[in-house]
Write a structure and sequence with these properties.
Layout: E1 7-12, E2 27-28, E3 31-32, H1 33-44, E4 49-53, H2 57-65, H3 85-100, E5 106-110, H4 119-132, E6 136-142, E7 153-155, E8 161-163, E9 183-193, E10 210-214, H5 226-246
Parallel strand pairs: 1-4, 1-5, 6-10
Antiparallel strand pairs: 2-3, 5-9, 6-9, 7-8
Helix pairs in contact: 1-4
Length: 247
């Protein structure tokens, strides 16, 4: 990545969630959920443009109120519950290219359901892709010990247990120190080279070389349920108190 590389931030905020209706603009400690991602992204200073992709006029209005671009409205067919992220981002990139002649070198996807993501996370992700020369950077969190591949089990058709890899249960690791350290995507951050999503043979966000950006678990809350919402509130209150004490 050169110093003149253009980085686009895209906040994907769909309005039609069935599991948690209206969550993207619901007030979280007095501020719309969406606003946390907008403010953090703007404060990071890494983007030459920041946009929201949404099909919902109320979300678009909130985004604009917080100083974020909404250059287009996402087609309804790209805002269903089962719509994957790839066509959503492809649509955004094609629209910007065709209508504004704008083609960034890198794109960072920021989902509004990760309100604890901080400006320094985005800065460090950009530094990481610069340092490693990776095709992409994915935000990840460490998996709890009991969810590692050597611990996860499944119930067979005969009703008995086996390890997920097919081995008998007695082969599971019983000591914590024997468990492998594992990570999973937390949905907070995806940074990638733009050309990857238009690869004719295999369009994707990742490429061959993916660098992990490991989040401290307190920042990695992904709001999908009301319980997640309450957890995010608790962490935000603690962070606000911490900031007051340090200032």
């Amino acid at each position: 990545m050169s110093k003149n590389s253009k980085i686009l931030g895209i906040i994907t905020a769909r309005g039609g969630s069935k599991g948690f209706p209206g969550k993207n603009i619901k007030p979280l400690l007095g501020k719309p959920l969406l606003a946390y991602s907008i403010e953090a992204a703007k404060s990071s200073g890494v983007f030459d443009r920041l946009i929201v992709s949404t099909e919902d006029e109320k979300i678009a209005e909130v985004a604009r109120q917080y100083g974020c671009e909404v250059p287009f409205m996402r087609p309804k067919e790209l805002a269903r519950d089962d719509t994957p992220h790839l066509p959503v981002i492809q649509h955004a990139m094609q629209w910007l290219k065709e209508n504004e002649k704008y083609e960034p070198d890198y794109v960072m996807i920021l989902q509004p359901t990760s309100p604890l993501r901080q400006p320094f996370h985005m800065k460090e992700a950009v530094e990481l892709i610069q340092k490693t020369g990776a095709d992409s950077v994915m935000g990840v969190s460490e998996v709890p010990d009991n969810f590692t591949p050597t611990e996860v089990m499944r119930i067979k058709e005969d009703g008995t247990l086996q390890l997920f890899d097919g081995n008998p249960v007695y082969k599971r690791a019983v000591r914590r120190q024997d468990l492998p350290q594992c990570h999973a995507s937390n949905g907070a951050l995806y940074l990638f080279k733009t050309h990857l999503i238009f690869n004719k043979k295999n369009p994707n966000f990742y490429g061959e070389k993916v660098a992990p950006y490991v989040f401290d678990k307190k920042y990695a809350v992904d709001i999908n349920t009301h319980q997640d919402w309450e957890e995010a509130e608790e962490v935000l209150i603690k962070l606000q108190r911490q900031n007051v004490q340090e200032s």
